[in-house]
Design goal:
CATH topology of the largest domain in chain B: MetI-like fold
CATH superfamily of the largest domain in chain A: P-loop containing nucleotide triphosphate hydrolases
Strand content of chain B: under 5%
Number of domains of chain A: 2
Oligomer: heterodimer
Shape of chain B: globular
Number of domains of chain B: 2
Number of helices of chain A: 9
Radius of gyration of chain A: 25 Å
Distance between the termini of chain A: 53 Å
Radius of gyration of chain B: 23 Å
CATH class of the largest domain in chain B: Mainly Alpha
Shape of chain A: elongated
Order of helices and strands of chain B: HHHHHHHHHHHH
Largest sheet of chain A: 6 strands, mixed
Bound molecules: adenosine-5'-diphosphate, magnesium ion
Strand content of chain A: 25-35%
Largest interface: A-B, 33 and 25 residues
Structural class of chain B: mainly alpha
Helix content of chain B: over 70%
Structural class of chain A: alpha+beta
CATH class of the largest domain in chain A: Alpha Beta
Largest sheet of chain B: none
């Protein structure tokens, strides 16, 4: 453990110039704009997840930082320095990609030493730095192996060690775990989180389409949709108060219902069902109502003194018929169709001892504070 | 589709395929070579089989200047395949940065000498380099250059195909680690291309070893490659001497290819798919 602490200290001492800034970056291939006027700041030491569906421009944003695409307009700054015109090998970054891209003709040791030699680190220092990086990723003892002699998870660790060995200020990760199976992925996530704790000066830009990776690892999440930045915030704030239906469905799961404002703190579903919502000053016209499944309860709400009562203030109670039931071990997911529009609400509740039958009439309830109104669009 | 499946996988079908192979391909590909080998040891050949066995033809070769001819062929093929590999690789690497239309033009330029009959290429060289300042007629260099021009297309195409298959993630990872373009080329790209490079070199070498038609138009008196000797021997009726020379040519070429393929198997890495 002493070795580890010393390594961590050494590496921290070497990390400088963290932080990334996109300043109005637009990237286009021929006529197709794949990154549109992109503004984002990653603070030194921060883990920023770029989350979005496939093709939304996440990799392109990362490549703009690495220097593999040239922005049509805008600037990219690393550690406060404008690097837009610098070639990739002068940018002082570390990069880890989905397919590992370890050099197959070099042993693990040579792979990790590659960046050190390229950056003209004094010969005498290299062996120590290689050992340090391998130790940090738990790959000491594999130095003599060739990449083909390692499992996928081990190769990805070596790729991370290779990127960290040069002590970059920023680490770019492009779907680094998506080639691994679920169990390995969970383990690697924990390790990445630990690396983040141990290297507080290191900025990470973490591209993923997997919300659980983003929620686990990121200090902030930037949600991307069709070449644009949709929303950016801490996982908690995006979860509790998503700025759009798109973000709501991409960060956590959400019931999204088409609605229309009818007063200061109420909306009306199709067919006239009135719902009290989180006070936000109200609005006009079309809207989207967002309720997280685990915030919806089944049955009548408990009254102030215990027994169920429909009269609890700010509690919405709706009636419908069960159209879907899923057992998930610790929980049940119950889908209820609301008359007259047939809009569906899914509630995630603790495992039920006697779950309702399909078609059975039930009530569902949720607090007004848990009903968030978003701009219209994004409903099924 | 059950029918094609059973055609290839049924037990009877498999034997039928093997028999077909033996009957059709073995005689076409292997038998002529065996006949040459047999002829090189024959005292005469008037019936279905050689009349008697002798090593006299080989003894003749050892006394004559055939060793020189073999050396000439080896040197020519080594020089031509080396130059072709250099030119073809360089052109393939340089073309990556060029627009697609230019790439196609470069490719067409290299393929042209292959598409044209090699006699024509020989004649063209003869005519083109017969006047100063480019007077190359009657030199050894003109043979090497003609061979190079004839085989570069193969090197160029093989390296181009390998480059297209190379995952850009390797060079990009190398660049992100701080490697200059030259370092990326020498330490990452070329080592990863090594299997294709050696395959291309072997192919070019074999083609050059066997080249006759353009060489016939160009060779100077002091630079007689082995195929020219074989042609001369059979032309004057010394069939068995020609056969012995052919066996030497064949064996040498195969030995070199084998050596090259050994380098290749050492250099081939399993790449993550
Ligand atoms: N080299 C390229 N040429 C043309 N279009 C490209 C190229 N690379 C990516 N694209 C397009 O840019 C868009 C964004 O791609 P990308 O950034 O890779 O998305 P993501 O990483 O979010 O899946 C996609 O529509 C993709 O087809
Ligand atoms: Mg991507």
């Amino acid at each position: 453990m002493n070795v580890r602490a010393a390594n961590v200290r050494a590496m921290n001492g070497g990390i400088r110039n963290g932080g990334i800034r996109f300043d109005g970056v637009t990237v286009a291939y021929d006529a197709t704009v794949v990154l549109d006027d992109f503004d984002l700041t990653v603070e030194p030491g921060e883990v920023m997840a770029l989350l979005g569906p496939s093709g939304s421009g996440k990799t392109t944003a990362l490549r703009a930082v690495a220097g593999f695409v040239r922005p049509r307009t805008g600037r990219v700054l690393i550690g406060g320095q404008d690097v837009t015109a610098l070639p990739p090998h002068r940018r002082g970054i570390g990069m880890v990609v989905q397919q590992y891209a370890l050099f197959p003709h070099m042993r693990v040791e040579a792979n990790v030493a590659f960046g050190l030699k390229a950056r003209k680190v004094p010969r005498g220092e290299i062996a120590g730095r290689v050992a340090e990086a391998l130790e940090m990723t738990g790959m000491d003892g594999f130095a003599e192996r060739y990449p083909r002699e390692l499992s996928g998870g081990q190769q990805q660790r070596v790729a991370i060690a290779r990127a960290l060995a040069v002590r970059p200020g920023v680490l770019l990760l492009d779907e680094p775990l998506s080639a691994l199976d679920a169990r390995l992925r969970a383990g690697m996530l924990t390790e990445l989180a630990r690396l983040h704790r141990e290297l507080p000066g290191l900025s990470m830009l973490y591209v993923t389409h997997d919300q659980s990776e983003a929620l686990t690892l990121a200090d902030r999440i930037a949600v991307m949709d069709r070449a644009r930045l949709r929303d950016c915030g801490t996982p908690q704030s995006l979860y509790r108060a998503p700025g759009s239906a798109f973000t709501a469905s991409f960060v956590g799961s959400a019931n999204l219902l088409a609605a229309r404002w009818c007063g200061e703190d109420a909306v009306e579903l199709d067919g006239g069902v009135r719902i009290r919502v989180r006070g936000s000053g109200g609005g006009e016209g079309e809207a989207t109502l967002c309720i997280r499944p685990h915030l919806i309860g089944l049955g009548e709400p408990p009254g102030p003194s215990g027994p169920p009562s429909p009269d609890v203030p700010d509690m919405n109670v709706l009636h419908g018929a069960v159209t879907g039931l899923q057992w998930r071990g610790a929980s049940h997911r119950v889908t209820v169709s609301l008359p007259p529009s047939g809009a569906e609400l899914t509630a995630e509740v603790r495992e039920l001892s006697s779950p309702p039958a399909l078609g059975e009439k039930v009530s569902v309830h949720f607090a007004a504070a848990d009903a968030v109104v978003l701009p219209p669009g994004g409903t099924p | 589709m059950p029918a094609p499946y059973s055609l290839v996988h049924g037990r009877g079908a498999r034997w039928a395929l093997r028999a077909l192979f033996l009957v059709l391909f073995l005689p076409l590909f292997a038998l002529p070579l065996l006949v040459i080998a047999a002829a090189s040891f024959a005292t005469g050949w008037s019936g279905a089989l050689p009349n008697g066995a002798t090593t006299a033809h080989y003894a003749d070769l050892a006394r004559g200047d055939s060793a020189d001819a073999l050396l000439v062929s080896l040197l020519t093929a080594a020089a031509a395949s080396g130059l072709a590999l250099l030119t073809g690789t360089w052109a393939a690497l340089a073309a990556q940065a060029l627009p697609r239309r230019v790439r196609r033009a470069v490719n067409a330029l290299f393929v042209l000498p292959v598409a044209v009959p090699s006699v024509v290429v020989g004649l063209a060289f003869l005519v083109a380099f017969s006047e100063p300042p480019l007077l190359l007629n009657g030199t050894r260099e003109i043979v090497v250059i003609a061979h190079t021009v004839l085989v570069t297309a193969f090197a160029h195409q093989s390296v181009t195909a390998a480059l297209a298959r190379l995952d850009p993630a390797y060079e990009q990872s190398a660049a992100s680690l701080g490697a200059s373009p030259a370092r990326v080329l020498w330490q990452v790209k070329l080592p990863l291309l090594l299997p294709s490079l050696t395959a291309a070199a072997g192919l070019c070498f074999a083609l050059s070893m066997g080249e006759l038609s353009a060489t016939m138009m160009l060779y100077p008196p002091d630079w007689l490659p082995l195929p020219v000797r074989i042609h001369a021997a059979t032309d004057r009726g010394a069939l068995f001497t020609g056969a012995a020379l052919a066996v030497v040519l064949m064996a040498t070429t195969l030995a070199v290819l084998l050596a090259v393929s050994r380098i290749r198997s050492k250099a081939s890495y399993r790449q993550p798919s």
